[in-house]
Amino acid sequence: MLLFKKLQGAGAAVPPRAPIKDIALAWLGGVLAIAAVAQLGDMLSMALLLGSFGASCVLIFGFPEAPFSQPRSVLAGHLLSSLIGLIFLQLCGPQWWALALAVGTAIAVMMLTRTVHPPAGSNPVIIFLTLPGWDFLLYPTLIGALLLVVVALIFNNTVRSAHYPKYW
């Protein structure tokens, strides 16, 4: 019965809507970042996009001050999660339980290293669905995440008064 009571919520109010200017800037940042990654991938004939990068853009452009949005978390979170996914795939094969262990391990390692980036938690899932080789660490993971951070550094420091990043 207590569980059902908890599921009703705590009764807190819905957070206020962000100002239209912030929404427009988040939109533009996301457009520019994904365009940069997609265009470079097309120019180099390489896959540089991950589905998780769309969610990364929500954080780094919509909530650039959040710990999850800092370059340290974006880069290391994506890299560590992809590495863990590849290790579990290689050691255990494409088993459902190996995928579950990979996701849980990625969460724990990001928390241990203070590099939590929630979108990166989906990287092991992407790896188990696509079964890539070790080059997945370099591209799309590292190069794509690095491009997102470069665009975020330039964009967020050009259009916002606050400093980005808050820390490295």
Please write out the topology.
Elements: H1 2-7, H2 20-44, H3 51-62, H4 71-92, H5 96-112, H6 123-130, H7 138-159
Q: Could you give a short description of this structure?
A:
By secondary structure, this protein is mainly alpha-helical. The chain has helices spanning about 1-5, 20-45, 50-60, 70-90, 95-110, 125-130, 140-160. It has one domain (about 20-160).
Keywords:
mainly alpha
Structure description:
The protein has 168 residues and is an all-alpha fold. It has one domain (20-159). Helix content is 67%, strand content 0%. It contains seven helices and no strands. The chain has helices spanning 2-7, 20-44, 51-62, 71-92, 96-112, 123-130, 138-159. The longest helix has 25 residues, at 20-44. It is globular, with a radius of gyration of 17 Å. The relative contact order is 0.18. The mean pLDDT is 96.
For the largest beta-sheet, the strand count, sense and barrel status come to:
none
How many β-strand runs?
A: 0
The shape, in one word, is globular
Query: What is the rounded distance between the termini?
Result: 45 Å
Q: What is the CA-based Rg, rounded?
A: 17 Å
- Proportion in helices: 55-70%
The number of distinct helices, counting runs of at least 4 residues, comes to 7
**Structure classification:** mainly alpha
Output the helix-strand order: HHHHHHH
Strand content: under 5%
Question: Any low-confidence stretches, pLDDT <50, length ≥5?
Answer: none
Average of per-residue pLDDT values: 96
